[in-house]
Design goal:
globular, Thrombin, subunit H, 97 residues
Length: 97
């Protein structure tokens, strides 16, 4: 786990120092199964899927997004690894966002 991702949460909150906090930085491993094209709302869209493996956190949800490199990914699935050893997050980026 040597790469950084940012998990983005909708809305904003304040931290212990009254600073705006709306993102979390985690160490992660990134696997790239490739991109596929498909039809969505009568448009051809390229959908790139990535699988992120991170240390366990109980606050990661499918309503979050992940910023990695220059792309933003929508979280589509979260699977626990072992007994709270980590999380495997499947996320997609669409070329028409």
């Amino acid at each position: 786990m040597d790469r950084r991702i940012t998990i983005l949460q909708r809305g904003s909150s304040t931290d212990d120092w009254n600073q705006r906090a709306n993102a979390y930085v985690l160490l992660a491993e990134v696997r790239d199964p490739g991109a596929k094209e498909r039809e969505e709302a009568d448009q051809r869209v390229t959908v790139a899927t990535k699988v992120f493996t991170i240390r366990f956190r109980s606050d990661v949800k499918t309503t979050h997004r992940i910023s990695y490199g220059s792309d933003t990914y929508e979280v589509t699935a979260i699977a626990e690894i072992g007994r709270q050893e980590g999380l495997r997050i499947t996320a997609v980026a669409r070329d028409n966002d």
